[in-house]
Design brief:
Elements: H1 7-13, H2 17-29, H3 32-51, H4 63-137
Helix pairs in contact: 2-4
Length: about 140
């Protein structure tokens, strides 16, 4: 915990606007909602151009639609890569934090084991002393 927040909350609060935007775009474009909306728009585009008796703004093979998709891909790919790179950095930082926590926990466990061993040795020493006193008294 960092200042009352868990690791993820602290990390999310430290993101700049561009990072949050890249994450939002990547999350949106990687969803079924986006696929369904894009499919619906493409279907409407094609149907409107096929049945548009008076004005066909993008006749088959839909060159304008291809240009729109190319432009979308040209912007989407680097934005998604930015989000993935930042997520990789976040995962690496989280792994380092987890490693540090595990190392601290291991050290505490080793210290506890040492204390328990010392207590056990003290008990055994006391038992031996009592037994020696009993033997000496006989």
């Amino acid at each position: 915990m960092i200042h009352g927040k868990n690791w993820h909350e602290h990390h999310k609060d430290s993101l700049e606007f561009g990072h949050r935007l890249a994450d939002t775009v990547a999350q949106g474009m990687g969803s079924w909602r986006f696929i369904i909306w894009q499919t619906a728009i493409v279907a409407v585009w094609m149907i409107a151009n096929v049945v548009g008796f008076i004005y066909h703004w993008d006749v088959y093979p839909y060159i304008l639609l291809n240009l729109v998709f190319s432009t979308q891909a040209a912007y989407a790919a680097p934005i998604i890569m930015m989000s993935q790179n930042r997520q990789n950095e976040r995962d690496r930082a989280q792994a380092e934090a987890d490693f540090k926590t595990n190392r601290e926990a291991k050290q505490e466990i080793e210290e506890l084991l040492e204390k328990l061993n010392n207590i056990e040795i003290d008990k055994l020493d006391k038992i031996l002393a009592i037994l020696q006193k009993m033997d000496a008294a006989k």
